Amino acid sequence: MAIYACDPAAARGRRVIEEESAFRSCFQRDRDRIIHSSAFRRLKHKTQVFVEHEGDFYRTRLTHSIEVAQVARTMANALGLNTDLTEAVALAHDLGHTPFGHTGEDALHELMAPYGGFDHNAQALHIVTSLERHYAEFNGLNLTWDTLEGIAKHNGPLLPLAEGETLPVTLAAYNAVHDLELHTHASGEAQVAALSDDVAYNNHDLQDGLRAGLFTEDEIAELALIGPAYAEVDRIYPSLDPYRRRHEALRRVFGYMVSDVIDTSRARLDAAAPESAEAIRHLGRPVIAFSDDMWIKLKEIRQFLFTRMYRAPSVMEIRTKVTQVVTDLFPIYMQDPSLLPQRWRQEIEAVEDEAQLARLVCDYIAGMTDRFALQSHARLMGVDILHDVH
Ligand SMILES: Nc1nc2c(ncn2[C@H]2C[C@H](O)[C@@H](COP(=O)(O)OP(=O)(O)OP(=O)(O)O)O2)c(=O)[nH]1
Questions:
Q1: Which residue has the CA at smallest separation from atom 18 of ligand 1?
Q2: pTM above 0.95?
Q3: How many CB atoms lie within 10 A of CB 284?
Q4: pLDDT, tens digit, 9 for 90 and up, residues 68-94
Q5: Are residues 303 and 318 located together in one domain of the fold?
Q6: What ipTM was reported for this prediction?
Q7: Rg, the chain, Cα only
Q8: To test the ligand 1 pocket, which listed residue (43, 47, 49, 120) has its Cβ within 8 A of the most ligand atoms?
């Protein structure tokens, strides 16, 4: 490992002190706790782009998280960073997603507007610091400080706040008791995990979008990063069948992105010459990055995916319906919290005001899988919103 890697022997430790494992480093143990969490298992039925009933081929938040962790390990290893910490942060980065992905998040954010809003990154931290309830001596997973800061700073430092911005309430509350130093950048490991998210989804969404027939290979071959990949495949394998041709082209695109991050980040690390993990945190700019040229090409892909996939009419039609599911469920549980399961009802006794009740209901709904939300909606509203024809 490089001098600037996070060394498990020097980790900042857990909020509740525990005996170290004889077999696993503290970061390995964090990763294992994340894999064994309920929230991680529920990612298997949470939307990446397509709602779960739309087909078994497409990515879910679980398969996406595994792909992020895979590429993150490769990049961390190439850069001399700690692969276990990188993997832990990568596997945890989407734990806070609601049913129906960003659509559910937007709906919950609006419903929670009077009570501090909702943010999936803050929710991931809330889950691993509070909502998982399996251990005798603490709520949450009691992860190391290093993993928690990586989860909190998925989008970079959270402080100082921009004008009119506030910290998500659950994050602010946790930070008040366990200072995650929100002014600094995260470790190199967490920065790798964050960029791996972009590498993974921009690649797999192209694959899923093609499979769904939302656009064609000829159309994506017009994009600056993708055209050369198809050209190279056609040159080497002039008579490849269409499926192998697609795979060969897209795996090259993936490789271009990974090589670019490794080369750019190596150059940045060489130039900054950080002498510790702490030095990376205080550098004032990220050390893990795409080159400017790659960033321009990536933005073109992101724009294409946004208009042709995330805002495609067929995706938007489902979006309207699943927004209704979340919008219907929230007031039902607010008005009659006795409908909540036992584990949540117990907490209602400690609720002091409407904002606390709303946060509880929000946490419960946010934890639902797509199918559980749809089932709950069908049971409570008497309609199967995706299948009933009106
Ligand atoms: N259907 C649908 N999917 C979306 C929408 N916005 C984003 N997605 C999907 C596309 C990508 O697979 C993925 C990108 O979002 P992520 O949650 O991974 O990253 P994002 O940069 O939005 O947030 P984050 O980095 O986690 O703070 O989510 C949307 O409005 N509708």
A1: 197
A2: yes
A3: 9
A4: 999 999 999 999 999 999 999 999 999
A5: no
A6: 0.91
A7: 22
A8: 49
